[in-house]
Amino acid sequence: MTEKTRTDHAAAALSAWTGAGAILFDLDGVLTPTATVHEQAWQELFEDYLAEQPEVPGYTESDYFDHIDGKPRFDGVRDFLASRGIVLPEGPTDDDAANTTVQGLGNRKNRIFNDIVSAGVEPFDGSVRFLEAALERGLKVAVVSSSRNAPAVLAAAGLTVHFPVVVDGVVAAREGLPGKPSPATYQYAARLLDLPSEECVVVEDAVSGVQAGKAGSFHSVIGVDRGAGRQTLLEAGATLVVRDLSELLP
What we know:
Rossmann fold; alpha/beta; single chain
């Protein structure tokens, strides 16, 4: 990277959140490395399930980003199954994890995820430093996550105290909010912070989350490339893409 490129990138990074009133953070992959835990849990779930479907193509690494990443859990189940031409019964929301239904598979994935996370979560250092800088500037903050495990992950990472507003999968279901790539959950968080969307920055690592930010009238959409790819996030609507949130600091 040339000196001019570095200077231009630094200026763009600073302007991406200058003048904003709030930062709306996705959780997994943005604040904590739990996106990789989700990816691991999904892989384990579907590799086991597809082992009983020998006529169906097996699970690949790209399946996570193509069909699952950033979506509400049961949408991820449906969309992955649809990619293989599979339709399963829905089952009740609290369906047993042993049952082969959309809800059963989703609950099985959740059990796998929680087993891994129970050992504790270390947040990204650069994300914590950016969060602290935002709070020092007087910005409001919120977490907007498709996961129903967001409060548990925040607690495991020691971040709960910073986020009085958390819009997760449980809140979305309760309020009847469609999941990402709809902007509804981010817009709801902005309302809870008593700010217009235009004053809120969306920070996302998933394509569906960036699309959600792009679809709303937000101040900007900062993409964090944790594997989706810089160009992919830009094409999805990111204003700027960084590899670590520390790049947004002066």
